[in-house]
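Sulfate permease, SulP family
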Amino acid sequence: MRQPKILTTCKTYNRDQFFSDCLAGITVAMVAMPLSLAIAIASGADPAKGLVTAIIGGFFISLLGGSRVQIGGPTGAFIVVVFNVIATHGYDGLVLATFMAGIILVLAGYFRVGRLIAFIPEAVVNGFTIGIGIIIASSQLKDFMGLQLASVPADFLEKVPALWHARDSFNLPAFGVAMVTLVLIIGLRKAFPRFPGLIVAVALGSLMIVAFHLPVETLYSRFGALPQSLPVPSLPDLGWARIVELFPSALIIAFLAGVESLLSAMVADRMIDGNHRPNAELTAQGFANIASSLFMGLPATGAIARTATNVKAGGQTPVAGIVHAIVILLVMLIAAPLAGNLAMPALAALLMMTAWNMSEPHKWKSYAAGQRSDLFLLVLTLVLTVLVDLTVAIGVGVSLGLAMRWWERRTATSDWTTPDRSWTASEEEAEAIAHEMEAVAHEVEEIVQGVKAAPSGKKTDPASA
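Tokens:
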């Protein structure tokens, strides 16, 4: 079924639900704004692109999606792919890849492939998620510690030595701002789980720069003023050679968007005891990414953390996600200059926390205690994600995982066992059987005697004996 959830929920929508959705939408917007800015920066894009993606992508994911409470926008899972596409093909290449990924997702929803998520081995998903978390965390060490480094290499094996060589430029004030922000994020989340503590923590960390006149970079000092309006929509360059060149990147973006959105929708189902529509969700992801690319935004997908925040804040219908997009738009139109004062170390701390949450350390023990084949697949996908390439990691992980699953089913031992045919009779049954056998033996003896007594050459019918 591809019908958007908003059409179902609007039939019984009431004033109380609208009030709850508005409060939840405002809360999620306060969480989404700093995250969207930080994700865009980590992806190698202009920070404003993160806000555009949250507004446009978030709006269409809620309007057309198959989940009641899904919140969409830029997510950490895309950072590695987006960074590599921008570095290799430029930002216009990313826009085209996002546009094509949107078309792929619309077709996936049309052909009802949403249920195929069940065939992707969970170990592969866990492996590349942890790998992405490691890459995100390592990419934020520069700003977290205030290191003076012209650019951070994309390759992990090159990045670590580059960061180590820049250790002498360690900036204690920047590190202090990052640590204070990190502690505030953790503390506010534990003390006030329903409160949008992310933006408060980032804001307080940034205020330290003004209060103590600290030599720390801000969004404005690095990127200039944020725009106060959405860009004019336009089609990307649709040259055939460019399409062929970027098609593999589009496939990866579509795969990540589909997997993460459906995983987020399943998590939301457990939280609200609901039932999402996977094909409607894929279709929504497709149109959201097409729309985001038209406004020069980043890839968008359902965000697990923001969706969970929406549920905890009381969101009940897709209206909450639409309100979240409208609130971010209003902030962009009215208060964009204020966002320029956000400290880079504070945003780095936010992404460090995001990377930690993505890796789900509370599940590591269960991973280690699980089947060895699953652990091997997880570690292999993780290593390939960090050291080689996300495309290779997903391709090898899914292929090997499906092959292992097929082999396990092929070699699985049957539950059938040879039936026990031994039988022990009781004394009464044994006595009755003995009498029957004696009677049969007596009849056989009479037949044999009759045959012997018959005249020569004359056959005797045993039945008449």
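The mean pLDDT is 87.
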